[in-house]
Amino acid sequence: MKFSIYRYNPEKDDKPYMQDYEVTLQPTDRMLLDAILRIKAMDDSLGLRKSCREGVCGSDGMNINGKNGLACITPLKDLKEPVVLRPLPGLPVIRDLIVDMSQFFKQYHSIKPYLVNDNPPPQKERLQTPEDREELNGLYECVLCACCSTSCPSFWWNPDKFVGPAALLQAYRFIADTRDEATSERLDNLEDPYRLFRCHTIMNCADVCPKGLNPTEAIGKIKEQMVKRMV
Amino acid sequence: MALSRQIFDTVIVGGGGSGLRAALQLAEAGHHVAVFSKVFPTRSHTVAAQGGIGASLGNMQEDHWLWHMYDTIKGSDYLGDQDAIEFMCRKAAEVVYELEHFGMPFDRNPDGTIYQRPFGGHSQNFGERPVQRACAAADRTGHAMLHTLYQRNVRAHCQFFVEWMALDLIRDYEGAVVGIVALEMETGQPMIFQAKSTILATGGAGRIYHSSTNAFINTGDGLGMAARAGVPLEDMEFWQFHPTGVAGAGVLITEGVRGEGGILLNSNGERFMERYAPTMKDLASRDVVSRAMDQEIKEGRGVGHEKDHVLLKLDHLGAEVINKRLPGIREIALKFANVDPIREPIPVVPTCHYQMGGIPTNYYGQVVAPRGASGSNEVIPGLYAIGECACVSVHGANRLGTNSLLDLLVFGKSAGDHLCQWLKSNPQHRDLPHDAADRSLERLARLDNAESGENITEVANAMRRTVQHHAGVFRTGKLLREGVEKIREVAERARNTAIKDKSRVFNTARIEALELENLVIVAEATLVAAEARTESRGAQAREDFKDRDDKNWLKHSLWYLEGSRLDYKPVNLQPLTVESFEPKVRVY
To answer: A205 vs A14, A191, A221, B240, CA distance in Å?
Structure first.
């Protein structure tokens, strides 16, 4: 199978280049990550992040034939050759397929990604109805792979000012949690021409999410809540 | 080369469930703590845990921590230390409620309490019938727990060193641990971190096996660090084979599938577990189910072209239950087995999953080891170990499902609490020895200077094949003796590897070479300890010694890197407050 992979090592290369590889696959190689590891066994200088190899840790996000995804759950049989692999767009490249995710995590941290409830907790669990708990489905499953935020033009242009789809999804995860008592502060924190309102519902985020989540919908719900509290 | 240095009260190596739980305890108490992780913390392997956290909340039916304690001791095949097991089971409810208060999105019952599902080996009233004890967030409990703990640490302003690999412990002339040497992956620079105390929380080393549910990062770094620093490794012969890894892919299918009512079938369509475990059936403990599956396959009742796996049937649960309680499993089955479990069974096979052994500790997380000729167990000052890399031992020869996440919470918190006290009476940093970084620098220099040598991937594959073949579900003396020989050859080869890429910036080849050194240590410990133990207990099933031998082997093994030497220490059969559970025959 043929591959064309983005290469850049700041110690050696003046500028990035694409390197071609051809690799013989074994019948057990089902996912893109399996093929990349065969390439890495031949060329140990190829840099990428990887860990769980089952789509739950979010390490191996990359741009695959023009679309962001996780290599470990992208089936090889669906890919057109040569498979073109590039780092996630819009973030600084450290080396090869490894990007600097500081800006992405800075935005995640900026939404106060933790439950706020200053009432003394009961002796046992806080109660929550199954229906209220269901509101968190489609939100809490995010693996922070950054596939969505780095496919979003608004995040490309303003990564320092626009929170981005991944972190906004998490902002809504806490707004939607009946146990959280900071909805008003959370909305204040997002009421800004850039932080929330740079989302122009292009929907690239929902299109690429490897976990099938829909940040655009969550962003819409945050906007609804803002409108609601104004009237 | 003089390395730059930073100073902390406590350094924690590993940002998974136990490391984050300990960090939280220390950071909230205002201590200057740093967490080192090879990956961004939410990518740690805790994220892959699926089924639940064991705690006798009694939300579904009557339950009691003493029943949980009994189940855990029986599950451990009586090799677990009963003081630590009592400690864990009594603390279980408290740490689960705390996690809920931190924001954990547990599934809920109609009355608003935490949903609990049945799990293997967990029973009511000392083995009478299965009980619903596993506190679950769908089949993504580990993911939900790890993210919740990370989030709570963000709130506590805990300091993280992300994408740093710890290389070695620093011990002073009196044997106290005074910090670590760690490598920043982005720059390739090593640095010294001086600390009053060090917590190893590096997880398991399941990557010593070819077929494993474990992530690539599970390379036993903490075990390698401890062993190189002269600390023994306990009970390394005991590796859990999870009954349901996806055949061919190794990806985990939670025991929660059987908890929700899924059953195992052989090629005759027979629910064979009824023969092996009349009461608990498919919910017998994991060692029992894995052996039964292997037996079925060996006797020709396996499924598929090669008759090399069995089937996990859950379509009878219905689409609603599967989509609500097991959505992640459906996703995995579709992606990795090409089947939709709403209609078809999932092909499964026993797959290496969990390391019961590890760095010996007491239930405060302090590392304890025999000292001097007297052989009495003493605390190594300044060193703690928690989570899968530690051996408290609460899991003994076989861990019960849901007790791993519980272990992370209970002993993460316990180590954090103990350290808060310990730091009060140990307010000063000890001096660094003058050779603090020598061992790490030698390891790095060897890799930098080796012009030719063996390929890392090839040596790693040889190691994994050896362990897989020689230390699998069923073992014999002959297989193990050959395995010891072979793994020593592999260890020699691992000392003569070379990487082509010598660059500094995010050199993953260098990281993998350093990881291989740790893996090989764990692999050797495993084979040597397994060969020596001439009995069958829990996960160690010897065809040449089929019975448990309490007279000679009711004891923990301790393996030392130096001379690949074995020693032993007694099992603690004395709980903290209740009567001891005497060893008896294990029937499910």
So the answer is: 32, 21, 15, 39
Beta-carbon contacts of residue B127 (< 8 Å; ≥ 6 apart): B70, B71, B74, B279, B588
pLDDT of residue B1: 55
Determine the residue among B159, B353, B508 to mutate to test chain A binding: the one whose Cβ has the most chain A Cβ atoms within 10 Å: B508
Look at residues A51, A80, A99 and tell me which one is the last residue of a structural domain. A99
Nearest to A129 among B43, B108, B512 (CB): B108
Q: A160 and A60 share a domain?
A: no
SS3 content of chain B, % helix, strand, coil (to 5): 40, 25, 40
Same domain, A131 and A226: yes
Q: What pLDDT is stored for residue A185 in this prediction?
A: 97
Count CA within 13 A, CB hemisphere, residue B471: 35
Would you call A95 and B505 a contact, using CB atoms and an 8 Å cutoff? Answer: yes
Token pair in block for residue B508: 């993953």
Task: Please answer yes or no on whether A114 and B154 come within 8 Å at the CB atom.
Answer: yes
Helices assigned H by DSSP within B363-425: 403-425
Residue among B102, B140, B83, B136 at smallest CA distance from B25: B102
Instruction: Name residue, tokens 């590890």.
Output: B358
- Single out the catalytic residue among B286, B291, B464, B510: B286
| A54 plus A115 within the same structural domain | no
The helix (H) or strand (E) run that includes residue A18 is strand A17-22
- What does chain A come to in residues? 231
When scoring B28, B158, B216, B515 by the number of chain A Cβ atoms within 10 A, the one with the most, hence best to mutate, is: B216
Contact B45 A51 (CB under 8 A): yes
Q: Tell me the pLDDT tens digit for each residue of B4-30.
A: 999 999 999 999 999 999 999 999 999
Which conformational region is residue B225 in: left (phi greater than 0), alpha (psi within -120 to 50 degrees), or beta? alpha
Contact B252/A59, CB-based, under 8 Å?
no
Here the ipTM equals: 0.98
Does B112 contact A58 at a Cβ distance shorter than 8 Å? no
Number of folded domains that form chain A: 2
Residues of chain A contacting residue B505, judged by C-beta atoms under 8 Å apart:
9-11, 94-95
CA angle at B127 for the pair B123 and B128, rounded to the nearest 5°: 90
- The residue among B463, B532, B431, B30 whose CA lies nearest residue B212 is B463
Distance (Å) from the alpha carbon of A95 to chain B's nearest alpha carbon: 7
Q: Are A117 and A86 within one domain?
A: no
A73/B335 touch (CB, cutoff 8 Å), yes or no = yes
Q: Which of B113, B332, B505 lies closest to A127 in CB terms?
A: B113
User: In terms of residue numbers, what domain contains A65?
Assistant: 2-99
Report the predicted TM-score, pTM, of the whole model to 2 decimal places.
0.97
Using a CB-CB cut-off of 8 Å, the residues of chain A touching B100 are 125-126
Q: Is residue A113 domain-shared with residue A91, that is, in the same domain? A: no
| Residue where a domain terminates, one of A66, A99, A132 | A99
Q: Answer positive or negative: Cα dihedral of B289, B116, B312, B123.
A: positive
Asked about B488 being catalytic, the answer comes back as no
Question: Are B100 and A115 a contacting pair, CB within 8 Å?
Answer: no
Residue B178 phi, psi (nearest 5)? -120, 15
CATH number at residue A142: 1.10.1060.10
Distance CA B60, CA B338 (A): 35
Q: What is the pLDDT of residue B376?
A: 79
Yes or no: say if B19 and B372 are a contact pair by the CB < 8 Å rule.
Answer: no
Are A109 and A208 within one domain? yes
**What's the pLDDT tens digit per position in B313-342?**
999 999 999 999 999 999 999 999 999 999
Q: Which residues pair with B74 in a beta bridge?
A: none
Phi (first) and psi of residue B193, to 5 degrees: -120, 105
* Min Cα separation B460/chain A (Å): 11
Residues A47 and A74 occupy one common structural domain: yes
